[in-house]
Amino acid sequence: MNDIDNLLEKYFNGASSTEEEKRLKSYFNETGILPEHEIYKPLFAVFDLERQIKAPGIALSEKNTKRLSFTRRTIIWIAGSAAVALLAITLSTFNPLQDQNREYVVIVNGKKISNPHKARQYAENMFAEAEKIVENSYQPFREAANMKEELNARKILRETAQKIEDIKTNNP
Length: 172
Description:
Layout lengths: L1 H11 L5 H12 L11 H12 L9 H32 L12 E3 L2 E3 L2 H35 L2 H18 L2
Antiparallel strand pairs: 1-2
């Protein structure tokens, strides 16, 4: 039964064909299974049991069937309309005939800028504004670091100890 061993190896590697799987199932349904193959018998028995299980049928009334078909048609119509709209939008934004003569085009807030100097100036202004925003967003962290430095217990104790020493040396 070296053939069965080869089929099992192919089966567990996911390389077996449908015909080879049928041969394995029929082998494990027989009574003359070799002892070294007995461990695989429950696996193939489960497959046979699964085939016998039938899902319970669902009875739909004619009214529900009509509603279901109307709903399905409506969903298909809406999905189709959305697909057509998306296609139209996509094709209109990537129109190759549009702006054929322009080599440099930047779209800013929906407006086309073909002058590279204006586009660069706009970009520099935007970067400057972004830098200001980032700078301002770090301000609370800087203030917290300054407060932490001012409220440093070691620093306060050191300064207090120095003041006490100064008072002791000035007042004998």
